[in-house]
Specification:
195 residues, alpha+beta, 2 helices, 9 strands
């Protein structure tokens, strides 16, 4: 009888632990591409350009109120210039920039989210033109009352030369003068995801 009661307690304990573990399994949220935006800013000696990159797809892994991972795919064939310059858009899609005919997408995979509360540091791997490099940046991530998740990162700096985008770079062309383009470009992300 004592063995039977001990066995019952053991089974109950295992079930309780299993339920606890299952309760903490991350839930995958799907990014709503229509409500999300990715912006870019490229600077040069004589000014700057800005625009958008279309988000093709994305997911966020949420454990309770904490984002633990995710993957985002950007459509590099849908780079837009805010001024509507088809010439600039064509150049950005060309091989000396993003080579979007050969590399139609870029991806970011979250490997770590550090910090407590809404203010976090997101780390992951960014792949552009088939080259993958680590990238970290501050972000604000909120699990909202309506069941959606919002993620905002206003100024992510990316060194384009690490992805073999050297056009107009003073780091590689000393005599370029006032036609130089900054090696870093900025990305701004405003994501909305839902179950």
């Amino acid at each position: 009888m004592k063995l039977k009661i001990t066995s019952i307690f053991a089974v109950v304990a295992i079930l309780a632990l299993s339920a606890f573990k299952n309760g903490s399994k991350p839930v995958t949220y799907t990014v709503d591409a229509a409500k999300s935006t990715i912006t870019w800013v490229g600077k040069k000696v004589s000014g700057s350009h800005n625009g958008t990159i279309a988000l093709k797809s994305g997911t966020l892994n949420v454990d309770g109120k904490k984002v633990t991972g995710g993957t985002f795919v950007m459509d590099m064939t849908a780079i837009k210039d805010a001024d509507g310059s088809e010439k600039l858009e064509g150049h950005l899609k060309a091989d000396d920039f993003f080579g979007s005919a050969k590399y139609p997408t870029s991806t970011f995979v979250i490997t770590k989210v550090a910090g407590a509360g809404a203010k976090v540091v997101v780390s992951g791997n960014l792949t552009i033109k088939g080259i993958t490099k680590p990238l970290s940046f501050p972000a604000t991530v909120t699990v909202n009352a309506d069941g959606t998740v919002s993620a905002l990162a206003g100024k992510i700096l990316v060194d384009r030369t690490k992805y073999d985008i050297r056009y107009g770079s003073k780091s590689f062309f000393d005599s370029i003068g006032d036609k130089a383009i900054d090696d870093n470009f900025e990305i701004g992300v405003n994501l909305v995801a839902k179950k």
